[in-house]
């Protein structure tokens, strides 16, 4: 049987084939099955493949094999979608084990020995393909192999205990004991991977060259390929039942966030790249940027000729799993966000062999460079850029993602005049990094201190209002050539210290700016996020509606307009009251 998972190109697509026969034995004690569901079940639970092998000493082992496979394929898809693959599969296999073990106990009469080798016992090997990860669960001595780039690798360990060179017995099996120990691990998938699930009657008589040759002979008929592998084993002297299942990965969806940690640990870091070098289908043109975090290169896709940007980990951080996970998360987030004002991830046409990210190349200059070239922009020029950056930020916030490191170096002004956010390395997606640190640890500040909102220096998590602060700080700098609180904000490590921060007017004698702009900026740059402008849209609206902004600025209480003046005034009032009380005594 050949089957393809339905759905668009963004869905997991597989081709499968399977075959079983008794071989030279009178009864086939193997049993196999698979399920390729339609969406949304395909995305929620994945493709399940199961293989069981009975033991020859038992007359009912074939019943155990059939029951184990059938119950798994039915019950797995009934588990809650909120359960992980591991939890769902463990629950189902444990239930099957308990049932089979109970049947063995009930089958024996008092005058019969309780011999597990004659009961409802079988091996069980399961593979669940979900998104771009293979989940492998294994009990016994059936095997799973992966054929990739001509190399066949065994992915399971045999649970067989050898007494001598010629004698052995199963150390683990389904139904053998009341408690079940299951091997579980995951493997990242790549398009073109071929998996072989086989019982010992097949795998003991074939090798990697046989598998590759048979699949090449039947590229569109994996059922025929599975049958030929069984026949080949039979011809080479196999005396056992013969079962083979083949699964080929034809297309993968974008990698999910919860898979990135596992994926990053399975990819080696590339070496530093140089101009003219060929790297995984790209030709490196030049190094664009280097820092303690990463190296960024301009390259061309050799097949398409398109210009791209490649980012690789720095030498300092390539042994930091948290950073490597974040690097791949950056690309995952870029694929999720659809905005003209955010850099786009490059669609990868080839399998990745090392850890790096690829994004579109946008000719232009950073906002830092633009400010050097335009030291005295008009208010309209500055607001036009800020509005575009705000639209990019809104695309993040709609997905509950905080950028956390908005600064001029991370904004590109394209040759087309469009402003785009180009670095997503410090983004915080809701729920994604909760496991990164213990609950009693303060969140690490990943952004740049000069533009970071004051709450970051208190160890608080970022919010959309934190991004708003950074955006307003960039506008303040474009209009005045300085930062709103200078270096003081980074030194203010307590709420009291932050309340003493004094907003300095953006207005000066050398530049013609309307007075109302101070009211808009002072509110957006308030040290307390609770008193800050609540929405990006409100901030950008105020920048284009000066009368309304001016009226709002006049209505702002002194605490919001000038916290330092408010507390000084309050202290003066308290001192006066105390002095009057002392004089009247």
From TrEMBL:
The chain crosses the membrane at residues 564-583. Keywords: ATP-binding, Kinase, Membrane, Nucleotide-binding, Transferase, Transmembrane, Transmembrane helix. The keyword Disulfide bond does not apply. Residues 282-544 form the Protein kinase domain. It holds the Pfam family Pkinase. Its EC number is 2.7.11.1. CDD domains: PP2Cc, STKc_PknB_like. Residues 15-249 form the PPM-type phosphatase domain. GO terms for molecular function: ATP binding; protein serine/threonine kinase activity. InterPro entries: Kinase-like_dom_sf, PPM-type-like_dom_sf, PPM-type_phosphatase-like_dom, Prot_kinase_dom, Tyr_kinase_AS. SUPFAM superfamilies: PP2C-like (SSF81606), Protein kinase-like (PK-like) (SSF56112). PANTHER family: MITOGEN-ACTIVATED PROTEIN KINASE KINASE KINASE 20-RELATED, SERINE_THREONINE-PROTEIN KINASE NEKL-3. This is Serine/threonine-protein kinase PknD. It comes from Achromobacter piechaudii.
């Amino acid at each position: 049987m050949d089957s393809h998972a339905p759905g668009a190109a963004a869905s997991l697509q597989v081709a499968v084939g399977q075959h079983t026969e008794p071989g030279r034995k009178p009864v086939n004690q193997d049993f196999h099955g698979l399920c390729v569901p339609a969406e949304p079940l395909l995305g929620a639970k994945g493709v399940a493949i199961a293989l069981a092998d009975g033991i020859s000493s038992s007359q009912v082992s074939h019943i155990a094999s059939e029951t184990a496979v059938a119950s798994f394929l039915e019950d797995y898809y009934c588990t809650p979608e909120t359960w992980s693959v591991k939890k769902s599969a463990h629950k189902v296999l444990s239930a099957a084990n308990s049932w089979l073990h109970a049947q063995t106990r009930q089958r024996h009469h008092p005058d019969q020995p309780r011999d597990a080798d004659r009961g409802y016992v079988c091996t069980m090997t399961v593979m669940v393909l979900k998104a771009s990860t293979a989940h492998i669960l294994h009990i016994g001595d059936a095997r799973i192999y992966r054929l990739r780039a001509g190399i066949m690798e065994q992915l399971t360990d045999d649970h067989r205990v050898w007494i001598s060179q010629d004698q052995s017995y199963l150390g683990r099996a389904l139904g053998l004991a009341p408690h079940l120990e299951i091997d579980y691990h995951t493997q990242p998938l790549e398009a073109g991977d071929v998996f072989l699930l086989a019982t010992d009657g097949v795998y003991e008589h074939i090798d990697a060259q046989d598998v590759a040759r048979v699949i090449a002979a039947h590229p569109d008929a994996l059922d025929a390929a599975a049958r030929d592998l069984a026949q080949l084993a039979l011809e080479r002297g196999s005396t056992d039942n013969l079962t083979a299942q083949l699964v080929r990965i034809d297309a993968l969806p974008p990698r999910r966030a919860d898979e990135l940690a596992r994926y990053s640990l399975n990819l080696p870091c590339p070496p530093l790249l140089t101009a003219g070098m060929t790297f995984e289908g790209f030709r490196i043109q030049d190094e664009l940027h280097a820092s303690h975090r990463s190296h960024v290169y301009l390259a061309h896709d050799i097949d398409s000729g398109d210009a791209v940007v490649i980012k690789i980990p720095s030498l300092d951080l390539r042994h930091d799993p948290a950073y490597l996970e974040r690097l791949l998360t950056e690309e995952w987030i870029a694929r999720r966000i659809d905005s003209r004002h955010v850099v786009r991830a490059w669609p990868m046409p080839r399998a990745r062999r090392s850890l790096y990210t690829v994004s579109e190349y946008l000719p232009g200059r950073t906002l830092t460079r633009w400010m050097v070239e335009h030291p005295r922009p008009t208010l309209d020029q500055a607001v036009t850029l800020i509005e575009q950056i705000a639209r990019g930020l809104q695309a993040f916030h709609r997905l509950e993602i905080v950028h956390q490191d908005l600064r001029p170096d991370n904004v590109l002004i394209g040759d087309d005049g469009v402003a785009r956010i180009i670095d997503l390395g410090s983004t915080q997606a809701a729920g994604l990094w909760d496991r990164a640190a213990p609950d009693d640890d303060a969140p690490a500040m990943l952004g740049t201190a000069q533009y970071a909102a004051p709450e970051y220096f208190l160890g608080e998590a970022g919010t959309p209002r934190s991004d708003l602060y950074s955006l307003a700080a960039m506008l303040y700098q474009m209009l005045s050539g300085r930062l709103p609180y200078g270096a003081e904000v980074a030194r203010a490590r307590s709420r009291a210290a932050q309340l003493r921060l004094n907003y300095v007017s953006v207005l000066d004698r050398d530049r013609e700016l309307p007075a109302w702009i101070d009211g808009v900026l002072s509110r957006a740059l308030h040290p307390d996020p609770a008193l800050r402008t609540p929405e990006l849209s409100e901030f950008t609206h105020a920048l284009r509606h000066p009368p309304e902004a001016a009226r709002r600025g006049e209505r702002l209480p002194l605490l919001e307009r000038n916290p330092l003046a408010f507390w000084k005034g309050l202290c003066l009032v308290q001192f006066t009251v105390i002095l009057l009380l002392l004089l009247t005594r």
